[in-house]
Amino acid sequence: MTLSQTKIIYIWGNPLDFSLSPFFQEHCAILSGKRILYKIFRGEKEEFLQLLKCKRCIGANITIPHKIEALGLCDELTETAKNAGSVNTIFKSNGRIFGDNTDGAGLVKWLKMKGTDLGKCEILGNGGSARSIAAALCEEKCEITIFGRTEKGWEKNFGRFKLLPEWKNDFLTISTLPFEVEGKNVITIGYSSGKISIDARMMLAFQGWLGAKRWFGETLPAEKFAEITELHADAQSNHGLILNLASKNEI
């Protein structure tokens, strides 16, 4: 296969400076005998749609701030994407563009793998990622309370809503907020360069594994995806540390 024939997967979002996806997805594809280019795109919706329609493109990942906007790019949505109200994975079949959401399912797979009790859960924040997580937890029959600054309306489909100041950290808590939250049994899924929690890493790994299954039909075992994601997360953290030290003239 020549470079001009190599299949392409895009990631659409901004910022993407700290994204691990291009590294672990290309690494996993190579190990599974597939050659792909995983390319970053930061442009506008209409240009992105034309890229998706290209024959070389087999799919895409969508990240902030485009997950809701991406709904309008798809010819069809999976039930998971409909319930989540957003799309983070696009795949193609018979010339049609399908939208899926693997965010919540990826996190739930990790939580179940490490033996977490999913009987009750509190979610901090009620943005797009919170909704996809709530939808996935609801499928596990989890009793969910969602905390936010104002109610948006979707919360009642999965649990009950409370204002953020009412959070008492009584149960397992998943924080989707853009800042660090301290407390017992708090899982933070956000990350930045040099600071990626194990929970954020594994959520990313397993949602990436689910996406790869959409694109290729079969891929490496989920545990191998997790191992490779860990490898690249460690490499990024080390890179961030070196840059930080260099900026302080400590190396």
Descriptive report:
- With 251 residues, the protein is α/β, with parallel strands linked by helices.
- The protein folds into two domains: 3-101 and 198-246, Leucine Dehydrogenase, chain A, domain 1 (Rossmann fold, 3-Layer(aba) Sandwich); 105-188, 3-Layer(aba) Sandwich (Rossmann fold), CATH 3.40.50.
- Helices cover 37% and strands 21% of the residues.
- It contains seven helices and eleven strands.
- The protein has helices at residues 21-31, 45-53, 79-84, 103-113, 128-139, 198-216, 222-247, and strands at 7-12, 36-41, 57-62, 76-77, 89-93, 96-100, 120-124, 143-148, 160-163, 172-175, 186-188.
- The strands form two sheets. A six-stranded mixed beta sheet has the order 2-1-3-5-6-4, sandwiched between helices. A five-stranded parallel beta sheet has the order 9-8-7-10-11, with helices on one face.
- It is globular.
Order of strands side by side in the largest beta sheet? 2-1-3-5-6-4
As a percent range, the share of strand residues is 15-25%
How many domains make up the coordinates? Answer: 2
At CATH level 2, the architecture of the largest domain is: 3-Layer(aba) Sandwich
- Biggest sheet, open or closed, and with what strands and sense? 6 strands, mixed
In CATH, the topology of the largest domain is named Rossmann fold
Rg (CA only): 18 Å
Overall form: globular
